[in-house]
Structures are given as structure tokens and as C-alpha cells.
Amino acid sequence: MSYIDLKSAPKREDRLKACIAHGGSVCDLGGKGKKSCLVDDGERGFTQGSICLLLPALAMLNTLPDNVVLMHSAIGCGTCTHSQNANVRFGGNVRWGKVKDGTWLSTALNETDVISGGDAKLEQAIIEADKRYQPFSISVVSGCVPGIIGDDIDTVVKQVQPLVNAKLLPVHCEGFKTKIWATAYDAVYHSIGRTLLESTTSEKGAGEGGDAGLAPYQGLERLPRTVNLMNVSSMGRIDELELTRLLTGLGLAVNVFPVFAHPEGMVTATQAALSISTCPTHDDYFLTYLEERFGVPYLLKHMPIGIENTGLWLRDVARHFGAEEQGEEIIRREEAELHAALAEFRPLFTGKTVFVSAGEFRALATARLLEELGFRVVGIRSFHHDAFAEGEYEKLAASAVEDYPIDIANVQPFEEVNLLKRVKPDLFLGHANGNATAAKLGIPTHVIYNTGLAYIGYRGAYDLARRLARQRKNPSYNRRLAENLRLPYTDDWYQSPPFSYINTRGGVTA
Ligand code: SF4
């Protein structure tokens, strides 16, 4: 039996033994022969607020054109959509020259629904959304409340589907089920697979899956030079174009999937010759499924951020298509041009120290790029840890001038501030909503991801260097912030070991 045959995707704590609480070092995690599968995840005796898996799930679902997102939840769930809508509008505009808001609704479950059940309300909402917006699809996304009171969105979807024109996609995002929000990628992929791909391929006359549904579907036309380029919203259009440029250099056609992909055309993903991950943290669940069910092989090893990593990523693709020489020629040409262009920035970076914070693979690949630019990495916070990142830790351990801390933390700014006070970096790279602590300490910050900026491939390496050079030249904004703001932590905490609360199971260990 495959995961896709289950009603919902398993949480990553179970499927990958992923963890969210570990205080270690780069040599600890990347040392030779070290197994970095940290199964003894006792979590923290103290924890600060974090996000739930709705945020990444909605970041994907809201980009789908002709799709309505219907939250089955309390009214506050999914309000992150308000901040994500700029990306939906911008992304649509740069792809199709059309500015369009995402469409999201909520059943706004109240106290009466919690007692009486919300199934009838959901049924009415689906019918109303179908009538009012006439979308190709409606994603029915469940938050915590239906999971607690026992509303069964799958049964409601099954009952209502014959009454509406839109294809209904149940997406399980009950926030209490997992603390690893990367489970959201699996939840969305799970729904796309079960509802859009399996039903569409059946309609097109493809054969049924074999025993346990695992045999590849037969009868679908294979597209021998088309590759799936996976993007779960961690690349903007500018980065998609950079990778498309490199892949078309190998004579390949590129199907970017799933963000901003029309649900009707998603079946193309099942016909591709190869799926290429841009981040193993995001894609393993779906790429395994595409291979099992449709016979589409995949590459899931490198993230094309940084000079070395982009070369490794492209080499793997070239090798798959027997185009090694072509690949080497592209890499030679691109690297020569890039190194010449970076020369003017290197004096500004050499020997400067940097702390990096992001989802695991992005943090590690970006740290490697910063080393390539001349920085010295002095600390990393990864939002969770799983075995896919072992190779990246090994690379960083091999290139580290001296050991430095690695904080596996689903944000936890109290640990971050403690570490920053100790390692005193010259620069901090983190997500837009995660840069505040460093900024208030007076450390120049730069956003590690923004859909309007380039980060990926050779162009991303150059553009990041150019932006950091500008930042390095004028750090006065952060200096002034630090002069006028204070953080809420006590001196006692700054004197305490940064990982004091990890694995304490409710109490502090000295
Ligand atoms: S944790 Fe639960 S209640 Fe809170 S936003 Fe997420 S789904 Fe809604």
C-alpha cells in the first residue's frame, strides 16, 4: 500500500522521523560517519509561537488559477492568506500579464458548529462557491476544528461532488497533528495526486493501477524531453526562468509544477520524462508517488542555490539525458562569467561572518553559497531536520574554518537571540518574518527568500552578492534600530546555554 492510498498524508514525524529540537554543531551533524537522523526528539521545556501547516499549504493552493480555497475551520485559520495575496497577484502578473487575487472563503465554524457538527455548513459552502465563482476546482482545506469534532471532509466531498461542476480537492491541514509544517507540502501533493491526477488519467483511458495500485499507469503519452521542475512556492518567477534557461540549454522542455499551474493541465506531470526537485525538503513525497504510480523517475539531491550546488544539480540532469558534455560546457561558461562578475564584491565579503536561518535545505545551500562568496558561516538555524540534509551538512563541515552551532528549531527566537549574542555575526540571512530579532540587535539583515528577487542558479548567486554588497556598504538602519529598541530577554538568559530548554520534557536542566 502506498501513502497516496491513505485518506491523508502521514505527518513527517512518523514518515521521515523528522525532528524540530536539537542543539548541535556543524561538525556534530556533518562529521564523517555521523548519522544525523535525530530520532530522540524530546522537544523543548519552553517554546515560543510558531506557524501551523496552513501557511505553506495556502501559499501553494492560492496560486492555482481557477481554484477556490474553501477553509473548513474557525474564522482565524488561514488569515496568512492576506499577506500571501501580494505574491498571488505579482506571480499571476509576471506569468500571464494579469493581476488577480486569490479566492479564499471560510465556513467560519462557531460554537454551535463545534457542538452540532459542521458538515452541513461545509456542504452548503461548497455548493455556493461552485455557483458563485464557477471555478475549475475547489480546495476544501480542513483546520483543527473539524479534526477535533470529527467532521469528515472526505465524506462531504464525496457526497457533494455529483452536485457541483468544480473538482473538489480535500486537503488535510489540521494544525494540531504535526509540528513540522513541511507536512503541508505532502498534504497538498496528496490531494492533487488523489483527485486531479488519478481521476484525470482514468478519464483519459489510462489503465488502472496494478496490485495495491502501485503499477505505473499505461496508455498515457510519454513526453521524452519534458521535465517537471518542482516549485512549491519557494521560487519566484525570476528563479523559475533561471532554471528553465539552464534546462532548455540541454534541449529540454520545462513543466513548472505545481504553483501557478492550472489544475486542468496538471496531468502533464504524469507524462514527463523526469521530475527534478529544487528542494528535497519539499518534494520527496510527490516525486516518489509520481514514480510509483506513473513511472516518472526523479532527481532529489541538490538544491540549485550556490555555484557548486547549481553545477551538481545540472550535472545530474545532464547525466540522466546522456548530455554530459553539453552540461559541462554550460557549467564551464556560466562559472567563468560568474566568477569574473563576482570579483568586485569579494573584498567586501572576505572574512565577514554570517548567520543563516531558514527551512533546512535552503539554509544549508545558502550557507554554502555565502562561503563561496567569501563569508565565514558562524551559525545556522534550520526549521526542522531530516535525513535528506545529511550531504549538505557534510559539505559545510568539510569547508568550516572552525566548528559552529546548528540550531534545529521551528523558529524559537529565544534560542536565536542567545546564539546571536555569542557569535556576533556581521550579517544575518533569514525569512522576512524571522529577521526582526537580528535586526533589533543591530545586525544587518537580508531576506533569504522573496518571490520578487533572484536567489537560484548562477543569476541568483550574482544578484544575491550584489544586494549584499549594497547592504554591507550601509548598515546604519539596523544600527539605529538597535539604539532605539530592546528585546524582551533578561541577562540571565543571555548567560544561559542556548540549548538549555531542549530535550527537557517540561523542565529546565542546568
Ligand atoms: S493551528 Fe489549527 S486552529 Fe490554529 S491556525 Fe492552524 S488549523 Fe487553525
Structure overview:
The structure is a single chain. This protein is an alpha/beta fold. The chain has 3 domains: 51-178, Rossmann fold (3-Layer(aba) Sandwich); 215-331, Nitrogenase molybdenum iron protein domain (Rossmann fold); 345-495, Nitrogenase molybdenum iron protein domain (Rossmann fold, 3-Layer(aba) Sandwich), CATH 3.40.50. It has helices at residues 12-15, 26-30, 54-61, 81-96, 111-116, 119-133, 144-149, 153-160, 183-203, 237-248, 280-294, 307-320, 324-342, 346-349, 360-373, 390-399, 413-423, 436-440, 457-473, 476-484, 491-495, and strands at 21-25, 67-72, 103-106, 137-142, 167-172, 223-231, 253-258, 272-276, 298-299, 353-358, 376-382, 405-409, 427-430, 445-447. The strands form 3 sheets. A 6-stranded mixed sheet has the order 1-12-11-10-13-14, with helices on both faces. A 4-stranded parallel sheet has the order 3-2-4-5. β10, α15 and β11 (376-382) form a beta-alpha-beta unit. α9 (183-203) packs parallel to α11 (280-294). The model is unreliable at 205-216 (pLDDT under 50). Residues 52, 54, 73-74, 77, 143-144, 175-176 line the site of iron/sulfur cluster. Iron/sulfur cluster binds next to loops.
